[in-house]
Write a sequence for this structure.
């Protein structure tokens, strides 16, 4: 995983904290649907509420795509949270846009990919959040199944788990993010959202989220 723009990563991390899109509770953890205890809750959908923020996100994605894959054919969003961001990026770049459902519809045409990505076309996937990476990889698999190529997955935020990095490496897909967990907790410390005494707990979770908050 690589950060698209380290300076913007810090700016965006602080923004997400300010609008409560990210909440940190190292001493009163959240419980994820997976059953993991977590000191962090991330809801990037809140960025949709703020036109200035969502425009900045879209412009950073678009600039990065222009720099790295200017000839990409389609911008593809992940359902559902990646869809609006993909639409804004596609609009800036004047590219076709598609999105991929978590599974094919069981009615109508039975589509899993909406908007259309054809065999031989290249597409970049826009995701709002990468945790284990399995959701993004399932989208990549669906696109590759129809014969599309996927050079990159771009995400607003990633936890940077080793399991996700391994998945992307095994698939040969480059993974880029606007900001990440390491940047976030450093910005949170600098701006008083957490204390120095919280940092050890936060780092422990990042290293072994399945077993946290047990000591590693």
């Amino acid at each position: 995983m690589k950060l698209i723009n380290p300076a913007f990563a810090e700016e965006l991390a602080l923004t997400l904290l300010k609008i409560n899109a990210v909440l940190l509770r190292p001493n009163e953890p959240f419980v994820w649907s997976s059953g993991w205890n977590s000191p962090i809750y991330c809801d990037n959908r809140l960025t949709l509420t703020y036109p200035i923020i969502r425009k900045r996100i879209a412009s950073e994605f678009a600039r990065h795509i222009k720099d790295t894959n200017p000839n990409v054919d389609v911008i593809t969003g992940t359902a559902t949270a990646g869809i609006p961001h993909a639409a804004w990026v596609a609009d800036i770049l004047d590219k076709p846009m598609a999105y991929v459902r978590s599974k094919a519809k069981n009615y109508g045409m039975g589509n899993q990919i909406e908007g259309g990505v054809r065999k031989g076309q290249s597409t970049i996937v826009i995701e709002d959040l990468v945790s284990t990476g399995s959701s993004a990889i399932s989208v990549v698999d669906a696109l590759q199944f129809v014969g599309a190529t996927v050079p990159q997955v771009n995400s607003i935020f990633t936890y940077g788990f080793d399991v996700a990095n391994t998945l992307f490496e095994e698939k040969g897909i480059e993974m880029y993010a606007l900001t990440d967990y390491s940047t976030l907790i450093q910005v949170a410390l600098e701006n008083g959202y957490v204390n120095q005494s919280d940092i050890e707990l936060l780092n422990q979770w990042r290293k072994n989220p399945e077993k946290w908050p047990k000591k590693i």
Summary: Residues 61 and 89 are 7 Å apart (CA to CA).
